[in-house]
């Protein structure tokens, strides 16, 4: 592995952390070269010599901070490699929830949202979205599945926790509406500020289930926290998100390099994540300047 990251909390605002992360190597991949000079500079990026990313590190194994405060997972490793290939130092700002990240991107507080943001047509009109990962949703229940949940219909009249403003929340609402349309009871949806709070509600028995992406749900089950009762729901694209076209194009260029030299494939195989099927990466949607 590469250098360990150094986690600092900025001021008294517990919702926002700055994380300086060193490059993290991926097993079986040839090392990428270090560039003497940055490939991009302000105004293409917001801070000279740095690539600033927002992240919500509460979703192991894709994005999380370990007990030493070190940023870990597929998405930090990807962000580190992007920064490295741009000749920049990666910096991460922790933000609780994508609903806060999007206006922060527009306000130029960070260069890229690196938290696995799901593509929607609405979002694609307010930022540049580059699909790079395929994900589906699972529903976690209490360990051992005491309610014997086997299918979505089993949640009729029961409660599910989600992160506020997330695609998980939106899809759970869609699932509830489909149950009502079939004459079943609606799902009671309880929304929380972040995934950690949603998971804690399930752990405390305040809800019957929690919606999470498949990879996170598998990780939670493997360490004995919960049981994954339902999986493979609503498969969709997760994206890297940008506020301006120049930095979008610069990142697409190095992402295409990663696909060509095998870094991208090796990273996703390491985490068991699903790769996008296209040969190259590209913006999907009109972007904010249409």
Provide structural commentary.
The chain is α/β, with parallel strands linked by helices and 290 residues long. Helices cover 29% and strands 29% of the residues. The N terminus is likely disordered. The strands form 2 sheets. Strands 1, 2, 3, 7, 8, 9, 10, 11, 12, 13 and 14 form an 11-stranded mixed beta sheet that branches. It is built from 8 helices and 14 strands. The N and C termini lie far apart (42 Å). The protein has 2 domains: 168 residues, 3-Layer(aba) Sandwich (D-Maltodextrin-Binding Protein, domain 2); 101 residues, 3-Layer(aba) Sandwich (D-Maltodextrin-Binding Protein, domain 2), CATH 3.40.190.
Q: How can the largest sheet be summarized?
A: 11 strands, mixed
The CATH C-level name of the largest domain is: Alpha Beta
Shape descriptor reads globular
Overall mean confidence score, pLDDT: 87
Class inferred from helices and paired strands: alpha/beta
CATH topology description of the largest domain: D-Maltodextrin-Binding Protein, domain 2
Low-confidence stretches: 1-17, 19-36
User: Per DSSP, what share of the residues sits in E-state strands of 2 or more residues?
Assistant: 25-35%
| CATH superfamily heading of the largest domain | Periplasmic binding protein-like II
Number of helical segments with 4 or more residues = 8
For the terminal residues, how far apart are their CA atoms?
42 Å
Q: Element order, helices and strands? A: EEEEEEHEHEHEEHEHEHEHHE
Q: Give the helix level as a range of percent.
A: 25-40%
List keywords for this structure.
disordered N terminus, D-Maltodextrin-Binding Protein, domain 2, 11-stranded mixed sheet, single chain, alpha/beta, 290 residues, 8 helices, globular, 2 domains
């Amino acid at each position: 592995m590469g250098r360990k990251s150094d986690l600092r909390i900025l001021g008294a605002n517990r919702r926002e952390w700055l994380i300086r992360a060193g490059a993290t190597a991926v097993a079986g991949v040839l090392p990428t070269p270090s560039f003497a000079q940055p490939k991009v500079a302000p105004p293409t990026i917001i801070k000279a010599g740095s690539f600033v990313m927002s992240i919500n590190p509460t979703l192991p194994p894709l994005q999380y901070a370990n007990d030493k405060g070190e940023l870990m997972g597929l998405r930090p490793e990807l962000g580190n490699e992007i920064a490295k290939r741009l000749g920049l130092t990666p910096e991460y700002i922790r933000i609780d929830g994508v609903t806060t990240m999007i206006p922060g991107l527009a306000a130029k507080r960070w260069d890229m949202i690196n938290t696995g943001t799901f593509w929607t047509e609405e979002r694609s009109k307010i930022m540049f979205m580059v699909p790079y990962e395929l994900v589906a949703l699972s529903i976690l229940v209490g360990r051992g599945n005491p309610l014997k949940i086997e299918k979505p219909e089993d949640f009729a009249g029961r409660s599910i926790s989600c992160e506020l403003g997330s695609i998980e929340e939106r899809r759970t609402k869609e699932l509830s509406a489909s149950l009502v349309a079939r004459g079943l009871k609606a799902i009671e949806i309880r929304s929380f500020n972040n995934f950690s709070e949603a998971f804690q509600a399930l752990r405390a028995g305040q809800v019957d289930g929690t919606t999470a992406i498949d990879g996170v749900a598998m990780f939670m089950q493997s360490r004995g926290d919960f049981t994954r009762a339902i999986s493979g729901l609503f498969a969709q694209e997760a994206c890297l998100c940008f506020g301006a076209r120049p930095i979008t194009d610069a990142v697409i260029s190095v992402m295409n390099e990663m696909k060509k030299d095998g870094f991208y494939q090796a990273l996703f195989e390491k985490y068991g994540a699903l790769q996008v099927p296209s040969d190259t990466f590209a913006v999907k949607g009109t972007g904010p300047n249409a």
